[in-house]
């Protein structure tokens, strides 16, 4: 397995983008059963686009970096575009390959987004 | 240097996994996760393999030579396991592990048919194997459950413990011999005496203690002791439930099947005497033989040598780990070889994953003691555990990596 903790992963985990609460946004929280971490996505949708998105949660570096990069990617995207996102896209976004045990960490923000589509 | 000390110095020759790991990965194996599951000596694997390749058969069902040999080996194993904890072979019941044993003993004490509502006392120090069992079976088996307090450092305050026993008057007290989180070895003899004074029996989780520290159920007055084989150099899938002879005679089986009975009629069943009635079905024969070999191996090295070695490495590890910036250590002074720690600025799973990339095996998270970790420590932990094969070089490798990891997140 390639090294997972690359410089940009550590940078995003220590200084994540879009971390915080968006008032009036829809909140979707997910839990990683393997480690107990929780992550919440705040999604503000407008005219079938993601107008703003942010996250909160005390997670491992991989989940935090994933949420940081993922929320950067989501801003302004159409709902049709984000509905088509697959796990592979997240790995490409992060530029790393992870073990099956850590896949749940990396895919935690995507799980929150999927929950948003299930509920709304 | 004595023969036993010499043996311990060359102990890695007994664990082929070290050679195989470096051949496969190019890295040294730094195995610091024995509290989760220990490595297995070649001798134990060979003994189990011998059963499969030389005398594979069932036991107690045939006069065939292979079966006789298997029976002899299983009997020998029971003697060795009993010796390891100061019990008699007639007090050893095989289980699939500590969790299975914990479930069984709770069922057994509630199945006496006395009609009395039992009172059980325990604490949040306990591993989930017994804690979850006690919480989940409470409604079904209709017993009362209460908890004795621990202080803010996770220690038992003797006077409070005593007071709680006097007030609550439990029938059973469940507590561990040694902690899988802090490594604390409890003065089990004292707690057993306090429990007995008030008429309670002591059920003790020996998972982190047996094979690591000197355990003698008789001199410590332990009524029930359970432990897993895989944390003490034995195979997975086999464990032990020790029940003191007089108590054992009062209990009824809760798991049923063949080989545990004398006769069966439409009107009922006559069970075997002794431990046999608690071991229905075909037992995990290779596991029993492996566990017996592990017990013999430990007895051969000498538990006092193991304790001495563990203490030396523990002291060294504490001094080395203390030199790392922003690390917080959680480890009791009287210790069975466990040091837990956390960094304020790094998630415990990242620490584990980064160590793992360098061939260093540790465990991270709540360690099946969520209440203790959450309520007392307040943060998930990374844990290292020391055993016979752990060296100062392992600790040096760990400390070098932890310093690198700490700097990485600065």
Keywords:
heterodimer; A: about 120 residues; alpha+beta; three-stranded antiparallel sheet; 6 helices; about 45% helix; B: about 400 residues; alpha/beta; seven-stranded mixed sheet; four-stranded antiparallel sheet; 14 helices; 15 strands
What does this structure look like?
The complex is a heterodimer of chains A (120) and B (410). Chain A is α+β, with helices and mostly antiparallel strands and 120 residues long. The relative contact order of chain A is 0.22. Chain A has a three-stranded antiparallel β-sheet. In chain A, 45% of the residues lie in helices and 19% in strands. Chain A has helices spanning 7-14, 61-74, 79-83, 87-94, 100-106, 108-119, and strands at 26-31, 38-46, 49-56. Chain A is globular and about 40 Å long. Chain A contains six helices and three strands, in the order αβββααααα. The model of chain A has no long low-confidence stretch (mean pLDDT 92). In chain A, a hairpin with a 6-residue loop joins strand 1 and strand 2. In chain A, helix 1 crosses helix 2 and helix 2 packs across helix 5. With 410 residues, chain B is α/β, with parallel strands linked by helices. Chain B contains 14 helices and 15 strands. Chain B has helices at 3-9, 17-25, 42-54, 65-85, 98-109, 128-141, 158-168, 188-197, 245-250, 285-301, 303-321, 348-357, 370-377, 392-408, and strands spanning 30-31, 92-95, 119-122, 144-147, 172-176, 201-205, 224-228, 239-243, 261-265, 268-271, 327-330, 338-343, 360-361, 363-365, 381-385. Chain B has a seven-stranded mixed β-sheet with strand order 2-8-7-6-5-3-4, sandwiched between helices. In chain B, helix 6 links the parallel strand 3 (119-122) and strand 4 (144-147). The model of chain B has no long low-confidence stretch (mean pLDDT 95). The A-B interface holds A 1, 3-5, 10, 13-14, 35-37, 58-62, 102, 105 and B 346-347, 349-350, 353-354, 357, 365-366, 380, 408-409.
